[in-house]
């Protein structure tokens, strides 16, 4: 019998939130790459939503920095047009747009031009006086990773990055970098060394938009605020865990970039390993940033290495049909657009529980979720004696990250009637519907946390290097014949059939896409 939906009533409690830091300090945000796609689609809309909701500092300014010549008026109009297309709240409040765009000023120059950064410093001093931002500066590098070292060097050379020697030091200087945080372990260490030469680790915010999604954050609340599930969250009760990140689109004209990256660098090393860590970590001693990040790092340290000839037994990769005809993709490319992996965590809690990850482009649907598959009942009581013999389905707890954010729990129930027939039902909580509130975009939360200095949802240096330490040997094997076949799969499919062998070896199967 197909699972049936069961309504769940939620009871939001009034009062002060458990954790609330209020408005951040006054500050100036310097956005490198201000004319890029990320800035237009995500960053300016997120900042606008924060401004509209009254969450930005009262004294706040944005410096839009670009290598191409910018002027304040035309660029503000450019931002306004972008908000019409990409802002979450529509229709736009014209007065709110005007107030927001008036906070934007522009600066131009090469990333390697000392004079340009000297002018930037003078502008920041002027803004601090005019807009009373107290000299607090937040730098956002929404630029290609290849530019990171040069920008850091130029900021340092102009005296615009100042190491904080003690907690709470003001004025503060913080730096946000977009993924990828390196291309492999060696390059990640080199990038971290460059960052560490200019700033203390607590001033560096490695942003991963997946960690800003409400339902990813809710994993911690769900696990540690409910006594019913945490006692079952271990190898005694869980059979396996499945993490899926499926995209229905292809490389969308970004073939050159993607061919240098691939699905493992693009999705697994950062997004999915971070989600895995939230699901697998031990309870932290507090909800403080470093306590949570300490526990996540322990998960990365406990990942069982997969190297060399072991890779084909644990990793299946594929390319969608027509990938090598995409503009910018090299002929004969082995870059995967799909990956399925079996991972093991050698810890007291998870020993013997496989974690299956899969991610890919041009799949049947867009879907990101975590499925916790509990063990089957030990014996089948409901057979014979007038009951219909049937196979009972294990309980599955599904944490939906996108597109329909929520949590679902499947369980078995008796079907009405004289005979004992059993069918599956599903209790399903829709996140936005249950709380009657729109789900904010990830960048809104993450930008606000950066201004507040809250690093909970950001990757720390040791975790980045631990994750790369696990992934790099797999990538090295896959780039040679030792990594096995790169399977071809049809667009709009579930991926290559060979991926089914990973769970089926142990009598399991992927959830249906």
From TrEMBL:
It catalyses: D-glucose 6-phosphate + NADP(+) = 6-phospho-D-glucono-1,5-lactone + NADPH + H(+). NADP(+) binds at residues 67, 179. It comes from the Bacteria. Keywords: Carbohydrate metabolism, Glucose metabolism, NADP, Oxidoreductase. Residues 1-20, 489-513 are annotated as: Disordered. GO terms for cellular component: cytosol. InterPro entries: G6P_DH, G6P_DH_AS, G6P_DH_C, G6P_DH_NAD-bd, NAD(P)-bd_dom_sf. Residues 220-510 form the Glucose-6-phosphate dehydrogenase C-terminal domain. It is an enzyme of class 1 (oxidoreductase). The active site is at residue 271. Pathway: Carbohydrate degradation; pentose phosphate pathway; D-ribulose 5-phosphate from D-glucose 6-phosphate (oxidative stage): step 1/3. GO terms for biological process: glucose metabolic process; pentose-phosphate shunt, oxidative branch. Residues 30-218 form the Glucose-6-phosphate dehydrogenase NAD-binding domain. It holds the Pfam family G6PD_N. Substrate binds at residues 209, 213, 247, 266, 361. GO terms for molecular function: glucose-6-phosphate dehydrogenase activity; NADP binding. Belongs to the glucose-6-phosphate dehydrogenase family. Catalyzes the oxidation of glucose 6-phosphate to 6-phosphogluconolactone. This is Glucose-6-phosphate 1-dehydrogenase. It comes from Corallococcus exiguus. The gene is zwf.
């Amino acid at each position: 019998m197909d699972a049936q939906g069961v309504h769940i009533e939620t009871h939001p409690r009034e009062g002060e939130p458990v954790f609330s830091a209020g408005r951040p300090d006054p500050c100036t945000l310097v956005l490198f790459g201000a004319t890029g796609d990320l800035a237009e689609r995500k960053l300016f809309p997120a900042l606008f939503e924060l401004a509209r909701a009254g969450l930005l500092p009262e004294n706040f300014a944005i410096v839009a920095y670009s290598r191409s010549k910018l002027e304040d008026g035309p660029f503000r109009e450019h931002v306004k047009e972008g908000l019409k297309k990409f802002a979450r709240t529509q229709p736009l409040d014209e007065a709110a747009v005007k107030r927001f765009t008036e906070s934007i000023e522009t600066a131009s120059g090469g990333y390697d031009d000392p004079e340009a950064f000297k002018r930037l410093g003078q502008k920041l001093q002027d803004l601090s006086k005019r807009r009373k931002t107290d000299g607090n500066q937040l730098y956002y590098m929404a630029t290609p990773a290849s530019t990171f070292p040069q920008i850091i060097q130029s900021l340092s050379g102009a005296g615009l990055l100042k190491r904080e020697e003690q907690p709470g030091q003001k004025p503060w200087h913080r730096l946000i970098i977009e993924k990828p945080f390196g291309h492999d372990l060696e390059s990640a260490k080199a990038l971290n060394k460059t960052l560490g030469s200019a700033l203390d680790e607590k001033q560096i915010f490695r942003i991963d938009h997946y960690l800003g999604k409400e339902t990813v954050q809710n994993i911690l609340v769900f696990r540690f605020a409910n006594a019913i599930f945490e006692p079952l969250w271990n190898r005694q009760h869980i059979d396996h865990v499945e993490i899926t990140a499926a995209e229905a689109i292809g490389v969308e004209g970004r073939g050159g970039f993607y061919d240098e990256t691939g699905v493992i660098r693009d999705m697994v090393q950062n997004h999915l390993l971070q989600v895995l860590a939230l699901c697998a970590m031990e309870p932290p001693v507090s909800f403080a940033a470093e306590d949570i990040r300490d526990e996540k790092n322990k998960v990365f340290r406990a990942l069982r290495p997969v190297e060399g000839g072991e890779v084909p037994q644990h990793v299946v990769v594929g390319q969608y049909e027509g990938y090598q005809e995409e503009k910018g993709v090299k002929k004969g490319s082995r870059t995967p657009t799909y990956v399925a992996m079996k991972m093991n965590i050698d810890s007291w809690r998870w020993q013997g529980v496989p974690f299956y990850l899969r991610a890919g482009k041009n799949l049947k649907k867009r879907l990101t979720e975590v499925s916790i598959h509990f063990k089957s009942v030990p014996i089948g009581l409901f057979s014979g004696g007038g009951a219909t013999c049937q196979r009972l389905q294990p309980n599955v707890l599904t944490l939906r990250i996108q597109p329909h954010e929520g949590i679902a729990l499947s369980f078995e129930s008796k079907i009405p009637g004289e005979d004992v027939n059993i069918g599956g039902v599903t209790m399903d909580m829709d996140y936005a519907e249950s709380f009657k509130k729109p789900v904010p975009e990830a960048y809104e939360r993450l930008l606000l946390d950066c201004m507040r200095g809250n690093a909970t949802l950001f990757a720390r240096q040791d975790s980045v290097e631990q994750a790369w330490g696990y992934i790099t040997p797999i990538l090295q094997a896959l780039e040679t014949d030792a990594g096995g076949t790169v399977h071809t799969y049809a667009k709009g499919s579930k991926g290559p059939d060979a991926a089914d062998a990973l769970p089926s070896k142990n009598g399991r199967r992927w959830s249906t896409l």
